[in-house]
Amino acid sequence: MKKNLLTAATLAVCLLAQTSDAAPEPQFNLNKLFKTATDGAKAMKEFNEAEEIELGQEVAANLLSLGPLLDNQEVQAYVNRLGRWVTMHSERPDLPWTFVVLDIADANAFAAPGGYIVITKGLLLRLNSEAELAGVLGHEASHVVKKHHLSAIKKADTTAFLKSGFDTALEISGKANSKNKNILAVLGTAIGLYGVGLDKDSEYEADHMGVVLATRAGYDPFGLPAALQSIQGRSGSDLNLLLSTHPPAGDRLSRLDRVMGSKFDRYDNLPAVEDRFMNIKELLSAKKK
Fold first, then answer.
1. Is 40 helix (H, G, I), strand (E, B) or coil?
2. What is the DSSP letter of 156?
3. What is the sign of the dihedral through the CA atoms of 61, 138, 261 and 225?
4. Which of 9, 94, 236, 279 is most buried, most CB within 10 Å of its CB?
5. For the segment 134-149, what is each residue's pLDDT rounded down to a tens digit?
6. What is the DSSP letter of 256?
7. What's the pLDDT at 227?
8. Number of domains into which the chain is organized
């Protein structure tokens, strides 16, 4: 029996603590930072699983600064149970899969290497069933399973990434508690990647695989297409940068329609689980006393 995992909120605090150690204000040399990043990317050309998880923890800790954690343990636990159930049906079930909900009104979700997935309260409120959420979590988990971010980092023009997100890179350089400069440089590259986005082929592959994972987990395979229709054309102020890195929802729906065809019709009797999900939405919508 595997040991019980920490709750999402507790683990998120632990992740944040990794980068919050007090440190003297660093003095930056632009050329030296770019050279370090380039050397680091070369040194980390291949990632073993331990390095992937370490990098993912650092990336997730920094991405969690986008907004506060949702202060609702029941919702956090629900998303973690569902996410872990979906990822059990992936090719990498033994990663330390961790799911965190941010208290942000805009609809979004994103993944970090090693099995760390963040979604927003706004996304949960826009969905209509557990099958839709399973499809979304399956999509994000597929990025991790297929190592899309690691592949992008290895192919990246590191200097260009750092220039595109230089303020973030400097902030990370001042806070990260890494043991060697190569990990730190790759971390800067990884954070820059979230401003540039994965290529369209990676997003389309994650859509297809997300449908497969949700179906394997016993959910209506058309949950992800329904979720894309729910959020199509919607955006917000806080996460426009991340939203802009995905292909348009209409393009993704067209691709899924071609890929799925009639292959998933035999699974149309699988449940969408609307009732249980609506109970979670009621918790999200309820005002605190």
1. helix
2. S
3. negative
4. 9
5. 999 999 999 999 999 9
6. H
7. 92
8. 1
Range of the domain at 211: 26-284
Alpha-carbon distance values, 8 to 29, 70, 110 (Å): 37, 10, 15
Q: In this predicted model, what pLDDT tens digit does every residue of 37-59 receive, in sequence order?
A: 444 454 445 789 999 999 899 88
CA dist., res. 50 & res. 131, Å (int):
32
Q: Which long-range contacts (CB under 8 A, 24 or more apart) does 276-282 make?
A: 276/130, 277/127, 277/128, 277/129, 277/130, 277/132, 277/133, 280/74, 280/75, 280/78, 280/124, 281/124, 281/125
Amino acid occupying residue 129: S
Are the C-beta atoms of 130 and 154 separated by less than 8 Å? no
Per the domain annotation, does 180 fall within a domain? yes
Distance CA 279, CA 288 (A): 16
Least Cα distance to 110 among 194, 42, 226, 178 occurs for 194
- Quickly tell me which residue has 């919050």 as its tokens: 20
Give, in degrees to the nearest 5, the angle at Cα 227 between 226 and 233.
105
Nearest to 79 by CA among 128, 133, 140: 133
Task: Using the Cα atoms of residue 166, residue 18, residue 1 and residue 81 in order, give the sign of their dihedral.
Answer: negative
Q: Residue 164 domain-assigned?
A: yes
Q: What is the DSSP letter of 248?
A: P
How far apart are the C-alpha atoms of 119 and 15, rounded to whole Å?
A: 16
Measured CA to CA, the distance from residue 65 to residue 69 in angstroms comes to 9
Residue 201 lies in a domain: yes
Cβ atoms of residues 86 and 137 within 8 Å: yes
Within-domain flag for 71: yes
Q: Is 110 left (phi over 0), alpha (psi -120 to 50) or beta?
A: beta
pTM, whole model, 2 decimals? 0.75
pLDDT, tens only, 205-228: 999 999 999 999 999 999 999 998
Write the CB contacts of 81 (distance below 8 Å, at least 6 apart in sequence). none
Task: Report the run of H or E that residue 111 belongs to, with start and end.
Answer: strand 109-112
